[in-house]
Amino acid sequence: MPGGSQGKTIVVGGDGRYFSPEATQIILRLAAGNGIKHIILGKDAILSTPAVSALIRSHKTDGGILLTASHNPGGPENDFGIKFNISNGGPAPEDVTNSIYKITETISEYKSMNLPDLDLSKIGEFNHGPLKVTIVDSVSNYVSLLKEIFDFGMIKNWLHHTTPKPTVLFDALNGVTGPYGRAIFVDELGLSEDSIQNCVPKPDFGGHHPDPNLTYAHELVEAVERNNIEFGAASDGDGDRNMIYGKGAFVTPSDSVAIIADWAEKAIPYFKSGVKGLARSMPTSGAIDLVAKDKGLECFEVPTGWKFFGNLMDAGRLSICGEESFGTGSDHIREKDGVWAIVAWLSILAAANKEQPGAGINDVLMKHWKKYGRSFFSRYDYEECESEGAEAMMSHLRKLFADSSFVGSTLKASSSDTSFKVAEADDFSYTDPIDGSVSKKQGLYIKFTDGSRVIFRLSGTGSSGATVRLYVEKYSKNESEYGLDAQVGLKPLIEVALGVSKLKEYTGRDKPDVIT
Ligand SMILES: O=P(O)(O)OC[C@H]1O[C@H](O)[C@H](O)[C@@H](O)[C@@H]1O
Q1: Among 354, 372, 390, where does a domain finish?
Q2: Boundaries of each Alpha-D-phosphohexomutase alpha/beta/alpha domain copy (predicted)?
């Protein structure tokens, strides 16, 4: 099935090629998801769905997509199939990965060649046998992009002209963002060498776990506390996630994305002309929803996984989004971007200091909670559980949810009299508002009448056995609680979650491996 793409037009087929119903569906869904209004059918190509064939004949539009037959399909062709317009750089949609998988089943031979060691310090195009290799300087390209997005002058002004001078520590956790951290913090912002650590990428990450959370980024947390550092930040092994941590101030990813959204227009030039919409993954706390409501913006709740944000961005309905799993980003690219989030926070602090000289992370957090209330949030990870026990726990919950007496029942904490009344319990399902695709079984949730939630999910990324994730969220408008440690504020709810799921009974685990 040869094909090509021409801007906002998809050209498919040629030479009387036949497209199966599945392939047809894929074409239409991708076209809709990418805002493509025009599909040109190559010479004598046949789309198999009768409705589509009828449309082709009558040149009618379907959901804004105009199908036209053409004798000049144009565009590059390949041996395998449809060349989709997925040039937005985001994670490949499932339809595409499924198609690729199908193709792999027909591969009968492959060839390999020995490449000489490439000198990556030489930028340019080089020929190696039949291969043309282009070496780019990704760091300088990325820094140029960030300089278009953020006001580096404002950040520098805050860093160098405030008394006392704010202190900063960036930790690349021996991952890929080391050179980026050096370029931004040392070369661009003019900070000293001791404002960065672990910035030489190592294949084994220095023997550590390159995860920016309180457990694995403890070296950063300890250094920030020991040296009274105003602004600490870490990004992960491949640079798409981030953690923001200042002296005595851990910013949960759920609060982080809400606060970035709140300050965006004021602190980040990229958003000066307005924010299009906001979004979060389902288990992420509702803090960002409150910002959206205040600003009159659309807010989407999508399943866990960044790919769900891409369609909304391509359709011009989403600017800023985040996940509780330390991913935060915007529509400048179609992936979460750890370094972007860190520079966004530097921008927020620089802007906050214009209003309140000396403002630190804690001041920004407290100001936010005073305006919107605080969503206490925590995630418990039980790693490498026996898959059977974990699945049995999920089945137990599903059965419980199916019992009509569960909604309306009261669940009591084990160590106090605090209780919660069940308002809703279900398995999260999402219908993509752009292409209509439906994703089911995305996490079991219980919502209580006071707005609190507990969620149970099996990780899709764990490497052995099953990882059970328990997410708990409790909203408070009581100012005297804002300074509380999240674990204290959430204790009764965590007890209820452990009780109702019988987690210990099913998994044999009495404490989580990681708490965030
Ligand atoms: O399924 P989990 O282990 O909870 O992982 C969920 C995470 O997986 C990947 O890292 C995706 O890129 C993230 O967008 C997602 O949040």
Answers
A1: 372
A2: 6-110, 165-245, 256-371
Band (pLDDT 50/70/90 cuts) for residue 106 is confident
> What would the 3-class secondary structure string for 92-134 be?
CCHHHHHHHHHHHCCCCCCCCCCCCCCCCCCCEEEEECCEEEE
40-49, 290-299, 438-447: which has the minimum mean pLDDT?
Answer: 40-49
The answer, yes or no, to whether any atom of ligand 1 lies below 6 A from the CB of 235, is no
pLDDT, one tens digit per residue, over 222-266 is 999 999 999 999 999 999 999 999 998 999 999 999 999 999 999
The pLDDT value given to residue 439? 87
Task: Compute, in angstroms, the gap from residue 409 CA to the centroid of ligand 1.
Answer: 32
Q: What amino acid is encoded at 347 in this protein?
A: S
Q: Give the number of other Cβ atoms within 10 Å of residue 470's Cβ.
A: 21
Range in 182-196, 282-296, 484-498 with the lowest mean pLDDT? 484-498
Q: Note if 112 is an active site residue.
A: no
Q: Which domain holds residue 11?
A: 3-103
Whether residues 309 and 413 share a domain: the answer is: no
Same domain, 273 and 378: no
Say which range, 120-134, 280-294, 496-510, has the weakest mean pLDDT. Answer: 120-134
3-state class (DSSP) for residue 172: coil
CA dihedral 486→491→495→501, nearest 10 degrees, is -10
How many domains are contained in the chain?
3
Does a structural domain hold residue 58? Answer: yes
135, part of any domain: no
**Ligand 1: which of 240, 281, 304, 384 to mutate, judged by most atoms within 8 Å of the beta carbon?**
304
CA-461 nearest atom, ligand 1: 3
Same domain, 411 and 484: yes
CA distances from 133 to 24, 56, 76, 121, 322 (A): 35, 42, 21, 13, 35
| CATH, residue 273 | 3.40.120.10
Looking at the structure, tell me whether residues 198 and 335 fall in a common domain.
Answer: yes
CA dist 266 and 274 (Å) reads 10
Same domain, 78 and 170: no
Instruction: Select from 323, 346, 372 the last residue of a domain.
Output: 372
pTM over 0.90: no
* Strand ordering across the sheet containing 249-251: 196-197, 168-171, 231-235, 242-246, 249-251
**Residue 130 carries which side chain, given as an amino acid letter?**
P
Q: Which atom of ligand 1 is nearest to the CA of 281?
A: 16
Q: Ligand 1, closest atom to CA 325?
A: 16
Co-location of 335 and 408 in the same domain: no
Same domain flag for 297 and 423: no
Task: Say yes or no to pLDDT of 509 above 90.
Answer: yes
Q: Are residues 386 and 424 in the same domain?
A: yes
The active-site residue, picked from 70, 437, 439, 459, is 70
- pLDDT tens for residues 212-231? 998 899 999 999 999 999 99
CB distance 327 to ligand 1 below 6 Å:
yes
What's residue 102's pLDDT?
A: 79
